[in-house]
Design a protein that fits this description.
single chain, alpha/beta, Rossmann fold, nine-stranded mixed β-sheet, 13 strands, 31% strand, EC 2.4.2.9, UPRTase/APRTase, nucleotide-binding
């Protein structure tokens, strides 16, 4: 897998159309974010490890089939917006564990400030880590999150960052510090405005997911 994968799929494009539209209300926004998250989750899990397990078919034939070891997968949404992808991943990885990292952006300095970290220290219990956050803008929040995870013993090679939208600036920021991190996204937008919002983007994903 390349270090950056763009999920170029008609359904993903349609999801983005609805998510970008300022007229899309909260309920529909959540629905499309989950749908897009499912497509991203399928791509992100393409190379996860399986173990063979024999099953007997209705024709009384035994055959080895791949069995997901999803109990050894850790899902880390960056709060708040990352919660929009959690159900998407759990739909295909029902035994995955979920930890949370809360990161707020200082709107004056654009620096990331953390306020929550529930990532377990038991890194030996997990084969893969999926960090999910719809927006990879400056990359400050993602880098801060990755630093916290790696500091607990997780290897960058284990970690995949999954986002709906990214810009080259954010991708470069992540790979400058963690070149081995895989990034899965639905689109790479042209850049950021003077407030560090992705343009054309979809606005503030956390607000649109959570505000009534």
């Amino acid at each position: 897998m390349s270090s950056v994968v763009v999920v170029d799929h008609p359904v993903a494009g349609n999801c983005l159309r609805i998510l970008r539209d300022k007229r899309t209300e909260t309920e529909a926004f959540r629905k499309e974010m989950k749908r897009l998250g499912l497509l991203l989750a399928i791509e992100a899990t393409r190379d996860i490890e399986c173990v063979p397990e024999p099953v007997v078919t209705p024709l009384e034939i035994e055959i080895n089939c791949p069995r997901l070891r999803d109990g050894r997968i850790l899902l880390v949404p960056i709060l708040r917006a990352g919660l929009g992808f959690v159900d998407s991943f759990l739909d295909i990885l029902p035994a995955a564990k979920v930890a949370h990292i809360g990161v707020a952006r200082d709107h004056d300095t654009l620096q990331a400030v953390t306020y929550l970290d529930t990532v377990p220290d038991r890194c030996a219990d997990f084969d893969r880590v999926f960090v999910v956050d719809p927006m990879l803008a400056t990359g400050n929040s993602s880098v801060k999150t990755l630093e916290m995870i790696v500091a607990k013993g997780y290897k960058p090679e284990q970690i995949t960052l999954v986002c709906a939208l990214a810009v080259e600036q954010g991708i470069a920021q992540v790979h400058k510090k963690f070149p081995a991190i895989k990034i899965i996204t639905a689109v790479i937008d042209p850049g950021l405005n003077d407030k560090a919002y992705i343009v054309p983007g979809l606005g503030d994903a956390g607000d649109r997911l959570n505000l009534i």
